[in-house]
Amino acid sequence: MKDNKQIWNFFASVKLALFTLCTLALTSIIGTIIPQHESYSFYVKRYGEGMANFFRILDIPDMYGSWWFLTLLGLLSANLIVCSIDRFPAVWKQIVADQSLLSVARIEKMPFTHTLDGLNSANSGQLESYLQKDGWKTQKNESGQGLIIAGQKGGWTRTGVYIVHASILIIFAGAIVGHFLGFKGSVMIPETKQTAKVYSSETQAPIDLGFEVRCDHFDIEFYDNGMVKEYTSRLTVLEDDKEVLVKDIEVNSPLKYKGITLYQASYEGYRDFIITLKDPATGAEKAFVAPFQQQVKWAEKDILLGVVNAEALRDRVVRMKVWFKAGDNAPATFWLEAQTESASADNGTGYNFSVKQMYATGLQVAKDPGVWLVYLGCFMMMTGLYFAFFMSHRRVWLVLNPDGKKGSLLIAGSTNKNKIGFEKFFSEFTGEITETLQ
Amino acid sequence: MDSSQLLGITTFTYLFSTLLYVGIFVFKTEKLGIAATVFTALALLIQTAGLALRWVESYQMGIGHAPLTNMYESVVFFAWTIVVLYLAIEWKFKTRVIGTFALPFAFLAMAYASFSTDINKAITPLVPALQSNWLIAHVVTCFIGYAAFAVAAGLGIMYLLKNRFPQETGNGSLLNTLPSLKVIDDIIHKTMVFGFIWLSAGIITGAIWANSAWGTYWSWDPKETWSLITWFLYAITLHARYTRGWGGTRIAWLAVFGFISVIFTYYGVNFLLSGLHSYGSN
Lengths: 438, 282
What we know:
The complex is a heterodimer of chains A (438) and B (282).
Chain A: H1 2-12, H2 14-33, H3 40-47, H4 49-57, H5 67-96, H6 104-108, E1 112-116, H7 124-133, E2 137-143, E3 146-153, H8 160-181, E4 183-190, E5 194-200, E6 206-222, E7 228-239, E8 242-250, E9 255-257, E10 260-278, E11 285-291, E12 296-298, E13 303-313, E14 316-326, E15 332-337, H9 344-347, E16 352-367, H10 371-390, E17 394-400, E18 409-415, H11 419-437
Antiparallel strand pairs in A: 1-18, 2-3, 3-17, 4-5, 4-16, 5-6, 6-7, 7-8, 9-10, 10-11, 10-16, 12-13, 13-14, 14-15, 17-18
Chain B: H1 3-27, H2 31-60, H3 71-93, H4 98-115, H5 134-164, H6 181-214, H7 222-244, H8 248-272
Helix pairs in contact in B: 1-2, 1-4, 2-3, 3-4, 3-5, 4-5, 5-6, 5-8, 6-7, 6-8, 7-8
């Protein structure tokens, strides 16, 4: 029994909190200096074999997910839980206690007191309604020592610290939910292609999305100085081959569908081209993927076409030469700028042409059913910090005829924080009480 | 008049402000006090105009964005928040000597921004990852926190100096002009609490932003990790004070150590470690 108490006290102690926080702060530095998630050979090359083995034993290459780091976080959680259970009841008592049951002797010893005399006509109803109008929660008690009216404001702000502690636990819970019920993955989808699988970032294992995603189009926009302005992918979500959602995604503007979010992350340029032909008469469109300098065939119209030459600026194709042959006619060739359309009247093929280099869009894919818990925790943390640091539990007492002194009123006050602010308030408060009684 | 001229002028006005505040401290002439305050407020106005103009200029270039996106802009904004916060403290606590220990940080930041050769001062367009409404929320919250910690560190140094030479009680002593140890201790604590709340908000806004851009609210990138280390440090400080009654010298030292961690989070990580937060390094 005594041992249990000792263990409990150990986990409830601030010493443990300080120790855990210090250890977490110090050990966290390791992972910012030693590169994480590299291969064993990387560490051997950089730190030598002995060190690399030592790192492996201590899980340094994945230190924030290592057994010892998670143990520290577990210790912090246990500390937070036990310490809160240990202290909260006393705090709760302070919040709900009937303040009017205090003895006059104790009220007289409050940090702020003021006495008014010669108030023979003062009545308690007047004082109580003044307090209530001013937003105080009042309690009243009459005893041989006098009539005590107690008022308090912001008692619940005493819970601030515990809200912050709980918020950290909720954030941890959110992280655990996300770890076990969610996934992080990525996938490269070439333009015009679709996929129902992405690949786990951790294990590279395929993960079934439960729907299909097609990349209709990928585009890079540039600023005048050559910097990238935006990566945009047009994605279509398909279920049972039916299109259910189309969205242009950008960095910072992902696509969400059935709890899974797809983020624009990277891209890859191919030596293939997408040639789009449009019949100006009917408006019908058809797109072909043509590898560089290879013919593709549109059998039903007896058409052969391809890209025979291309000019690139850095790794970006800006101009392409199209080759087109319909039936037994002589082939036509013409140059076309990226992102422009060649009208049928100009190229003499009977079709409007547009050609672009083919890309694959690189998507980061995440499912995190714990994220709302994390956000809830964050919100609670800010609220709790605000309560804990900027709001106080203020109490005032008005004692009419204390210890039988007729016509005397004892005004007392106390606060758990911000003594200076309370001092100013208290002098105004006594002034207003005096006025009320006149 | 363009923004770089205004911000260049700001560097010198903050130098002059610093000298005025040092003047109050050294010559103990309260008359200089009003001059120092007025001059600093004026310098702040010039800097505010400079920042606003830089914002306008970015729109004229067709790449409009808040001036908070690279090392130069962030250092300038850091100086701005320090001065705003200092003036607020001066107004609230009615003491000017603190300026002697706070204004130098603003001046040093501006001098570094203006004269360092490894900082690019040009207004550059935003890379896709930075094009988000979270940018302003994240940067502003973090820097209010950083500025508060800078002021707390300045006060910490003040405390340690005054505490180191307590026997010089004669009228000739410089340190007598400083507020009493108890008052300094109280302001250090309040400034740290203020900084802690804003740092928490900064980490949270960063996490939400990362989640909307990359699908991970926390990835143990060096910048994130260091911000957390800093957060731990101040959390330790607050717990030590509230539950173990730490105060005085210990807290003053922690204010200084905490700020070293802040500087490393803000500056060191960009240059010494690699990671996702590489935007700030040029």
